[in-house]
Each structure stands twice: as structure tokens, then as C-alpha cells.
Design a protein that fits this description.
152 residues; two-stranded antiparallel sheet; 6 helices; 7% strand
Amino acid sequence: MQKSFIIVLVTGLVVAMFAVLNAKPVEVNMIFKTFVMSQAIVILVSATLGALAMFLMNIVQVMKLKKQVKQLSKKLVNAGINTDDVTGSKSKNKAKKEQKQPVVEPVEKPMAEQLEKTVTKKTEDNVFNSTNSASGSLTDALNNVKEDEKLQ
């Protein structure tokens, strides 16, 4: 994208410099009428109309190609062929979904058992503490933290 923009910009500057250097009044003969105007204006208008014509032809070509791709994709789907298998690439949406899924590594069995024991112990402690103390004093909370540190 940037290369094409730079090429267009440089070409436009060359055409503009050429037009300014050739700014003499000239007679322009349209089929029905004759005008006298600066040659620079004639050059700039001609270059602009040519660029516009090329742009419009490019848009038509891109639309035709998109239509053709859709038709061929439908034929592949009707034939039972996945378009990802043919092109070797994945659609942007599928690639984004696959990137967002977290990678979960299997947890070793002893580690899982220890984690389960710790969660069970903390749950039992919380239930016990909430039934024995109405508000859970600060000292009880500190004792629970110390016990948790000993377990780990």
C-alpha cells in the first residue's frame, strides 16, 4: 500500500512540475468549441481524468474477481471441499478465534491432589470460622493466614 502511494505521489509531482514548466497559453480544440487556456491546466486536467479512468477500471476488475471467488467457493462447498484445505490458509475470523483460546497444560496428578486438598481445607476453615465468630476477628484472620503459609 505504501509503495503504491509513494509511486502515485512522485508521479503526481513530476506531472505537476512538467505542467508548471509548460504554462504557455495554448488553443484547445474541443469538437464543438475552441478554448484558449494555459497548457499547465490542460496537462493537469488530462492527467487527473486519466487517473480517474484507471481507478474506475480497477474497481470494476476487483468487483468481477470478488464475484468469481464467491462463485468458485460455492462450487467447492457444494462439492464438499473445505476452502481452507484448497487455499492452505485460514479465514481471519477462524485465526482470531484460535488465537484467543488459552493453552491449558495438563496438571501433574500429585500437584492436582495437593491443590484439591488445599482448596478443601480452606473451604472447611472458612465455614468453621464463619460459624464460630460473628464478624471474624483480626487475630483469627491472621492465624488463618499463618496456617495457610505453613501448608504451602
